[in-house]
Amino acid sequence: MKPTKPTPQRRPVLRGRAGRHLHGGPLTYAVLILFTAGSLFPLVWTAIAASRNNTRLSQTPPPFWFGGNLFKNLQTAWTDANMGLALLNTAVVAGTIALGTVLFSTLAGFAFAKLRFRFKNLLMLLVVATMMVPPQLSVVPLFMTVAELQWTDQLQAVILPTLVSAFGVFFMRQYLVQALPSELVEAARVDGASSLRIIWHIVFPAARPAMAVLGMLTFVAAWNDFFWPIIALTQDNPTVQVALANLGQGFVPDQSVIMAGALLGTLPLLLAFVLFGRQIVGGIMQGAVKG
Amino acid sequence: MRPYTDQSGPAASPSSGDAVPAPDRRATAAVERPQAGDRRRAWRSRRYRWDTKYSPYAFVAPFFVFFAAFGVFPLLYTGWSSLHRVSLSAPNDMEWVGLHNYTRLLEDEFFWNALRNTFTIGVLSTVPQLLMALGIAHLLNYRLRASGFFRVAILTPYATSVAAATLVFVLLFGRDYGMINWVLDAVGLGKVDWQSGTLSSQVAVSTIVIWRWTGYNALIYLAAMQAVPNDLYESAALDGATRWQQFLHVTIPSLRPTILFTVVVSTIGATQLFGEPLLFGGAGGQKGGASHQFQTLGLYLYEQGWFNFHLGRASAIAWSMFLILLIVAGVHLLVARRLRKSQ
Amino acid sequence: MRTSTRTRRRAVVVAAVVALGAGLLGGCAEDSDEGTGGGGSGGSKKDAKGRTVIEIGTFGVFGYKQAGLYDEYMKLHPEILIKEDVTERVDTYYPELLTHLAANSGLQDIQAIEVGNINEIATTQADKFEDLSKAPGIDKSNWLDWKWAQGTARDGRTVALGTDIGPMGLCYRKDLFAKAGLPTDREAVGKLWAGDWQKYVDVGKRYKAKGPGGTTFTDSAAGLFAAVNNGYAERFYDGDGKLIYKDSPAVKTAWDLAMQAAEGGLTGKLKQFDKAWDQAYANGTFATVSCPPWMLGYIKEKAGTAGEDKWDVAAAPKPANWGGSFIGVPKAGKNKAEAIKLAAWLTAPEQQAKLFDKQASFPSTPPAYDLDVVSGARNPYFGDAPTGQLFAEAAKGIPTLVLGPKDQQIGTAFGDVGILQVEQQGKSPQEGWKAALKEIDNAVDG
């Protein structure tokens, strides 16, 4: 089990392996197409529902094809759910959280993987244990803290508590233990390089693939985070999920508008999937081998 | 003294033992060499000592500062609250009740019901999800046309949020006007009142979870499958094993650690399940149905704390969830150790 | 005791924040400046033009802004700037308000309170609110006695002023009634069940026998339960604050009627405010629903053009109240004097009448009923029904409701658990009753 850096060179080696040289039969395609259809259908139907109106959605059989209200409904959802602000807020929140998590997790992960310091194992154990803490656990005291600091309804109320993640530290540690040769760090040390230099010129380049995966995972998770933002924020300054939750539960004129809101909230991520799908898939798979 | 590496061994022989990949040339070249000058050297060496001694703490510090403020502090505070009677209408008036909130939970049939639901929904969502992911990964591992499309397509549900996904499924699962019931009715199976039944509501909630996560897990399995050495299959084939037998006796055993990893992650997710049942329940969703038939622990906590305003009790539920997860993790560790030994 | 706990908690919080480090907080300063509403430093708040800013926190659609009342006030008082902070759902808004009250921070100058929470506020949070009973410009005699009483604490301090109330009528579908051989004229329909909810259920049985297939007499048994229950003075609590839900005549009668409706198949087995309920409006699958003024707008939106000329509204069997709100001025607010002036103005009969005209929120101040906008109000969607007169009539007969701190939880336990188990899950009334009581025990037990 010798660690190598997961670089693109590894791919051709993988290609020759396993069952990959076998061609898939018609049955394979049939099952995959069915499964893909199942994966995509709810998304497509969201768009169909968003293009109809309340009355049509209340009838049977339900609509199977697009109607003419898509643009109108998107517009209504946009204004009613404060969607423009919500999208902007979510981008800021998810971006900041992803950046913070990646940065802090890489630093801490490096320290845990390659450095020696007091209480290291105990601290690592603490980190792993908190991966199992249910998020609901912290809500009450967090809310009281946030209220005390008068952060209610402000973005830092959702950014700061999620700025670091135990999973991230664990993830980066696991990755760097394998991907970063200790000898490389040592050689730089012997040459008199400062810690900051080592971080910048050795650790970051080595960790880059994992940082990308962690950043993406964190961004998607933060974009879709639900439990805490709903409590900390209100419709006045919402993230997408807060806006959606209120669309789904309040006094709302039209079901298809709700679906249009859901579509708006998902669209940016879907767009990213369409544009960078290959990279995202590759990233998750690289992360998976290490994790 | 080798402050800068965690591996034991003689400092003089960096290349002894394991084969070491060539250092990244870019990285080494970028490191400046020390310059001459005695005073400078003394200063440098002092700085060097300080740097090596304290920088590890500086690296972990940001994480632990935030972690202490937003992770450990609320955890301990909740633990403290769970020993008190305290209402959301007066969170500052705490009345010490010792373990009352916990002993009360033991006799609280709503708690046991929520625990049972969390478990059954967990099984209903995790087992089919991982089995399907395994199967899909196996299929994706063949040489395929449009394999890139399939991979991206099965991952797209992962991009949707709980809220958006649940909104769609609530409509699809609608009793009177939902598409699923319309199809069931059309093929003569009759409509199902998805929300009212215990099994049906749990199946519906699980469906949302399965839909969102199967593709993601399939990719993780696929990555692990591609790392299985080909000669294992070849020798199995030589022994006359069919494809199915190869899958069973080569693929699955090689995937064990990955499977265990996904099981743990899914279990943690299942224990914390909250958004799907809440939104599936519609108005007053915190109850999880008229008989609490799909109320999970997360929902029960929410109902007690934010609807009934029993903060102390909600804290006790939260800590119970934490303890349950610790037990699950302990079991996982034991199983993992047993597996490692048996290999 | 109380103070010491709070001091300790504050110390812990402050310690946690200090631990965060000034630098880290500094990094977020940008965000906090952008944040809207809330926050702010102590002292009276002014905007760039030197106007005093009054912040008002509401939930749902209060309608002040939509009815143009803020604009009107700011025109009258150029030195004032009103900002509204709306939380969509009261069950998010209220826990937040409680937390803010406990922390004495994050409060708006004026805070709205829903009728389901007013008792808890008046009994447990009275010391956090200004006493409005003797404030200038506020005339107690303007309000309905019971409305005024609900916002008043035991020691006589009035912590919140009544805004709207929800006097109930009964909305019905003329087309479905005609098909079932029932009268369609609103006077005649009102007479069908005047004075007794049992008559209403009996009409339901007639409807069930003759009404068009695929439709039911009413939407939900829980809705019927609430409507009947709301017509009594004492429901879940008696005048001394004792819990009497187990054998109060109100609960007994309401439960019995709800069971008749559920077991007799008179209901659509729907849950109010659920998606399926909205869809049923669109499809017109039930014939009646109990209807406070704000419900008219809801029906119009959900039933849409398909329901045009089909709905009408008649008098309910008995006068009852469903919904309504209050506004109070927290002591921790920054501009208390100005806030009280604004609160008094917003709840004065003239403004309440305007709000009814624009937003269908019915005034809690009888002098408003004689104003033309109220007395002459008609609703074109509901067959030009004289809604002003109808609801004013209903409002006068509403009994003085006795409220308690856990009203909301108890009501939900009956409606969303006990009744729904019988109606949707086919359990027996005994099982449903037992389940509801167990639910309530769990909610009221500290």
List keywords for this structure.
heterotrimer, B: 343 residues, mainly alpha, MetI-like fold, 2 domains, two-stranded antiparallel ribbon, 13 helices, 2 strands, 3% strand, flat, C: 446 residues, alpha/beta, D-Maltodextrin-Binding Protein, domain 2, six-stranded mixed beta sheet, 19 helices, 13% strand, disordered N terminus, signal (chain C), Sugar-binding protein (chain C), SBP (chain C)
How would you characterize the overall build of this protein?
The complex is a heterotrimer of chains A (291), B (343) and C (446). Chain A has 291 residues and is an all-alpha fold. Chain A has helices at 10-15, 26-50, 54-57, 70-80, 83-114, 120-130, 139-148, 156-159, 166-179, 182-190, 195-223, 227-232, 240-249, 255-290. Chain B has 13 helices and 2 strands. In chain B, β1 and β2 form a beta hairpin. In chain B, α5 packs antiparallel against α8 (198-226). With 446 residues, chain C is α/β, with parallel strands linked by helices. Chain C has 2 domains: 52-166 and 324-376, D-Maltodextrin-Binding Protein, domain 2 (3-Layer(aba) Sandwich), CATH 3.40.190; 167-322 and 386-445, Periplasmic binding protein-like II (D-Maltodextrin-Binding Protein, domain 2). Chain A binds chain C through residues 54-55, 57-59, 92, 143-145, 147-156, 159-160, 230-231, 234-237, 246, 249-251, 253, 255, and chain C through 9-10, 13, 16-17, 20, 24, 28, 31-32, 34-40, 60-61, 85-89, 92-93, 96, 99-100, 102-103, 105-106, 275, 278-280, 282-283, 298, 301-302, 304-306.
